[in-house]
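Problem 12. The chain below contains 286 residues. Write out its predicted structure in token notation.
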Amino acid sequence: MRSDRSVTRRQLVAEGAAALAAAGVGAPGREALWLWSDLLGEAPVAAALDHGPGSVEPEHVISYAAAIARRAAGEPFAHVSGWAGFRHLTLRSDRRALIPRPETEGLVDLVLARAPTGRVADVGTGSGCIALSLATEGRYDQVLAIDHSAEALQLADENRRRTGGRVELLRGDLCEALRPGSLDALVSNPPYLTAGEYGILDASVRDWEPERALVGGPDGLETIARLCISAHAVVRPGGWLALEIDSGRAALCAERAGASGWTDVAIHADLFGRERYLLARRSDAR
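Solution.
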């Protein structure tokens, strides 16, 4: 794309779509249109129908061309635009945390259906998408968002301020910052891949999203096993554990949860029909 000449919105978006198509990006027309919308704060219809002033300002041509080049080079759309949608929220997204994904939205539904009130913690909060969704959709006395990464917590804080969600941010490893028996529910999307699986991920994930949020030890179960044990101490009797898991290890995750003292262990499918969520209860007996 050239940035040294006069161009209309429609022309600019068409050239952006052509550049994305040449790079093999799926749905290039839609992505080119939405990049314009996200970067310039203009409704997509304005670019599609060429509403507004005739020529695009030179600085906007330059910034849009740079965004198209980044996307064509393989950078995720959410990082290029700076935004990601999650349930009812629009959140900042960049390399500090995983990009919020539609599969994870179902985990929020499961928690809201079982523990819509009380005190809940999101462990490994990343962008804060789960915690902020619970805070804005539930009726909780307190929502805690915990992460070991200071960078991830900075991103979660930006999203907290943007959405106005009543969430308390804590830095710590898994449940170390929580008091025994203090939660009605603990929810997490923990790392659950092996190093080998991480190595063969699509470059759009492997090269741009944090490895620490994806790799869960040599067998992919190390973090989940630790979390099942530590969560059992901080969830009150009768409370809930809700985890996003790897569909290929669902049975193994259920075994780990049962061995850690959780009862009523159940696996639930995501919107694509894959075994994606683990739900379990803390026994009423202490």
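Discussion. The longest strand covers residues 235-244. Students who got a different answer should revisit the alignment rule from Section 12.3.
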